[in-house]
C-alpha cells in the first residue's frame, strides 16, 4: 500500500514538471438561426455530390469530370495528400519498437609479444531492439497531430475540387451566355445591314436625308464592332476552360443553348448545417485538432522518457564455429532520461505552439463566418436577380411595343427613320440585358452550390485514430471522385 502511494505521488510530481500551456481563447462564434434572405427552396432539394448534373447539360458534366481528373492544381493537391499520408506512418512508427542488425566480420594482422606477426579473424553479428514506453502519451499526441494534418490536407483537396468544379461550371455557363450574345448580335447586324441599305436607297431617290443614311451606317458599324469583341471573349473563355480541364488551349464542346438551361432548385439548409457541409470548414477544424495535439506533445517534452533497450549477438574466431557453435552475448538496459535545464526552451516552444493554436481558433471562426456570408450572398443574389428579370421582361415588352409604333410611324411618313433606329437600339439593349441576367442567374446558382459545400461528405474523425491503429489511412470515400491513394 505504501509503495502504491509513493508511486502515485511520484507520477503526479513528474506530471507537474510539464510545461504550462495557456488556456485557449473564448469562443466568439455565434450561429445565426436563419438566413437573411428567405429563399424559395425546392421540394426535397438536396445538394448532390455531382451537383453540376442538375443543370442537365452533358457537355457541362463532361467538362467538370475532365477537370476533376486532369486539372493540374488537383494533381498537386492529391500529391500533398499522399505526402501527409506517409507522414502519419512516420509518426506512428515512433510508438513501435525499433530493431537493428549489425554484422562486423574483422580480419587483422598483429604482432605477438615476441615480435612474430599473426592474423586473427573475428566473426560477429549483433542485433539491438529499443522501445520507448509512452507513459505520458507524447508519442500518441504526435501521431494524432500527423493524422489530423493529413485529414486537413484531404479536406483541402476536396475544397480545391469543389472550387475547380464550380469554376468550370461558371466558365461554361458564361461561355454559353457569350455564345447567345454573339448569335443575337449577328442577327441584329443583319437587321442593321438591311436598315442601312434601305436608308441608302431612300437617300438615293431623295426620300430621306443624308443624315438618316449616315445614322443607319453608324448604327451598323457600332453593331459590327461588337462581333469581334464577343468572338475574342469566347476565344479566351474556351482557352481558360481547356486549361482548367488539364488540356491545351482549344475549342470547347457545347451542349444545351442558354435558353434551354434552367437553374436548379435552391437547396434547403440552415446555417448550423453548413458547419458539416463545407470542406474548408472541416480543414480549419482538422488544423485545430492538429495544433492541439502538437501542443500536448510539445508541453510534455520536459517529462522523463522511459526506454527499454536489448542487445544480443554471437561471436567466434572461426567461421565453422561461428555457424555451428557461436558464443552468445546479450545486454538488457532500461533508461530514464529527462531534461534538467534548457533555459526554458520547452516553455517558450509551448507558448509558441499555444499562440499558433489561438491563430487556428480565429482562422476556424473566420472560415465559418465566411461560409455564412457566401451562402447568404448567393441566396440574396438569386432573389434580387429574379426581381430584376421581372423588370427586364417588362422593359423588353415596352421596347418591343415602342419599336412597333416607331416602325409604323416611319412607314406612314409621320416620323423620321432616326426614331425607329432609336427604338431598335433600345430593344437590342433589353435583349442583351435579358441574356446577361439569365447567365448571371445560372452562375449565381453555381455560387450557391459552392457556398453550401457542393454535396461534400465529411471523412472519419481523426481523433478516433488511436483505436485499432490508424483507420484514417485507409481508402475513405472520395467526395469528388478522387482515386484512392496508393499504399
Give a brief description:
It contains 9 helices and 5 strands. The protein is of the alpha+beta class. A hairpin with a 5-residue loop joins strand 2 and strand 3.
Describe this structure in words.
This protein has 487 residues and is α+β, with helices and mostly antiparallel strands. The protein has helices spanning 2-15, 58-70, 72-93, 138-204, 210-244, 279-299, 319-324, 345-411, 417-451; strands at residues 98-103, 106-111, 117-133, 305-316, 327-337. Strands 1, 2, 3, 4 and 5 form a 5-stranded antiparallel β-sheet that branches. It starts with a helix and ends in a 36-residue tail after the last helix.
Sum up the structure in keywords.
single chain; about 475 residues; alpha+beta; 9 helices; 5 strands; elongated; disordered C terminus
The largest β sheet comes out as: 5 strands, antiparallel
Overall average residue pLDDT? 80
- Total helix count? 9
How would you classify the quaternary structure?
Answer: single chain
Number of strands: 5
Helix content: 55-70%
Morphology call: elongated
Distance between the termini: 50 Å
> Which stretches of 5+ consecutive residues score pLDDT under 50?
5-16, 462-487
Find the structural class using helix and strand composition. Answer: alpha+beta
Order of helices and strands: HHHEEEHHHEHEHH
Approximate strand percentage: 5-15%
Please tell me how large the radius of gyration is: 37 Å
Amino acid at each position: 500500500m505504501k509503495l502504491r502511494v509513493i508511486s502515485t505521488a511520484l507520477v503526479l510530481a513528474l506530471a507537474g514538471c510539464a510545461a504550462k500551456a495557456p488556456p485557449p481563447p473564448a469562443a466568439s462564434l455565434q450561429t445565426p438561426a436563419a438566413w437573411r434572405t428567405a429563399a424559395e427552396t425546392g421540394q426535397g432539394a438536396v445538394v448532390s455530390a455531382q451537383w453540376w448534373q442538375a443543370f442537365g447539360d452533358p457537355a457541362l458534366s463532361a467538362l467538370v469530370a475532365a477537370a476533376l481528373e486532369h486539372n493540374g492544381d488537383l494533381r498537386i493537391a492529391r500529391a500533398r495528400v499522399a505526402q501527409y499520408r506517409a507522414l502519419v506512418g512516420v509518426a506512428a512508427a515512433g510508438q513501435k519498437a525499433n530493431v537493428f542488425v549489425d554484422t562486423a566480420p574483422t580480419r587483422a594482422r598483429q604482432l605477438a609479444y615476441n615480435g612474430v606477426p599473426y592474423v586473427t579473424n573475428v566473426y560477429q553479428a549483433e542485433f539491438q531492439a529499443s522501445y520507448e514506453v509512452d507513459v505520458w502519451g507524447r508519442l500518441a499526441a504526435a501521431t494524432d497531430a500527423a493524422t489530423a494534418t493529413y485529414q486537413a490536407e484531404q479536406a483541402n483537396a476536396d475544397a480545391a475540387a469543389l472550387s475547380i468544379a464550380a469554376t468550370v461550371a461558371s466558365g461554361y455557363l458564361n461561355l454559353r451566355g457569350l455564345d447567345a450574345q454573339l448569335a443575337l448580335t449577328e442577327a441584329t447586324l443583319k437587321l442593321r445591314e438591311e436598315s442601312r441599305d434601305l436608308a441608302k436607297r431612300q437617300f438615293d431617290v431623295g426620300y430621306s436625308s443624308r443624315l438618316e443614311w449616315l445614322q443607319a451606317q453608324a448604327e451598323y458599324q457600332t453593331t459590327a464592332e461588337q462581333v469581334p469583341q464577343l468572338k475574342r471573349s469566347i476565344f479566351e473563355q474556351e482557352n481558360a476552360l481547356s486549361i482548367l480541364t488539364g488540356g491545351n488551349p482549344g475549342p470547347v464542346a457545347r451542349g444545351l443553348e442558354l435558353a434551354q438551361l434552367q437553374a436548379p432548385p435552391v437547396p434547403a439548409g440552415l446555417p448550423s448545417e453548413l458547419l458539416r457541409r463545407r470542406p474548408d470548414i472541416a480543414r480549419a477544424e482538422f488544423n485545430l485538432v492538429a495544433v492541439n495535439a502538437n501542443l500536448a506533445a510539445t508541453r510534455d517534452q520536459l517529462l522523463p522518457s522511459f526506454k527499454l533497450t536489448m542487445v544480443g549477438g554471437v561471436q567466434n574466431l572461426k567461421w565453422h564455429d561461428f555457424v555451428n557453435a557461436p558464443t552468445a552475448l546479450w545486454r538488457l538496459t532500461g533508461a530514464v532520461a529527462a531534461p534538467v535545464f534548457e533555459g526554458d526552451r520547452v516553455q517558450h516552444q509551448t507558448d509558441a505552439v499555444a499562440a499558433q493554436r489561438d491563430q487556428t481558433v480565429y482562422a476556424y471562426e473566420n472560415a465559418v463566418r465566411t461560409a455564412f456570408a457566401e451562402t447568404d450572398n448567393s441566396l440574396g443574389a438569386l432573389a434580387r436577380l429574379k426581381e430584376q428579370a421581372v423588370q427586364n421582361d417588362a422593359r423588353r415588352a415596352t421596347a418591343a411595343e415602342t419599336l412597333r409604333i416607331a416602325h409604323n410611324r416611319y412607314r406612314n411618313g409621320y416620323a423620321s427613320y432616326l426614331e425607329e433606329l432609336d427604338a431598335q437600339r433600345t430593344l437590342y439593349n433589353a435583349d442583351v440585358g435579358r441574356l446577361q441576367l439569365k447567365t448571371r442567374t445560372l452562375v449565381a446558382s453555381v455560387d450557391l452550390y459552392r457556398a453550401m459545400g457542393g454535396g461534400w461528405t465529411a471523412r472519419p474523425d481523426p481523433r478516433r485514430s488511436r483505436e485499432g491503429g490508424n483507420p484514417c489511412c485507409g481508402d475513405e470515400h472520395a467526395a469528388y471522385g478522387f482515386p484512392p491513394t496508393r499504399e
